[in-house]
Amino acid sequence: MSQVFRAILIIVSVVTFLYIARKLKKSQVEGYDAIFWLVFSAILILLSVFPGIAGAAARLMGIQSTENAVFLIIIFTLLMRSFLMSIRISQLNHKIRLLAEQTAILEKKLDDLDGGMTETGEPYERTYMENSESCESAEESEREKEAVKEATVV
């Protein structure tokens, strides 16, 4: 492994390690995610400080260049991390969908119990956020209201 590559790897790994540690201290990143990045950067520091480890791994994998072995390990690790994050995002999306459905059911039950009236006896109108409409549908409904107003004026 060349001296320049080792120096770059050490600098980037140490900066990454310190950055993630700072974010963890400020509670801006979850512990599970921070642990991955801290361990990942620590392993890269070890590989750059002790290039013999990377050379042995390259020989075991049948790769001639130590740098290529290091890049292969990094790419494989990040691809696995990306795959695991995709699974996690899918699970969270499913939970969000279930929560939205449960919220809609509870709002419907609440409307039925209230009879559609507020505490003052006025008809209850949902706000934009309560309806969970997209921006586009809200804009379309505003345009429709304006069109109806223009038609009634004419």
From TrEMBL:
This protein's UniProt keywords: Membrane, Transmembrane, Transmembrane helix
InterPro entries registered for this protein in UniProt: DUF2304
Transmembrane segment boundaries: 6-22, 34-57, 69-87
Basic and acidic residues bias (residue ranges): 140-154
Region named Disordered: 129-154
Residue runs in coiled coils: none
Record has Transmembrane as a keyword: yes
Name under which the protein is recorded: DUF2304 domain-containing protein
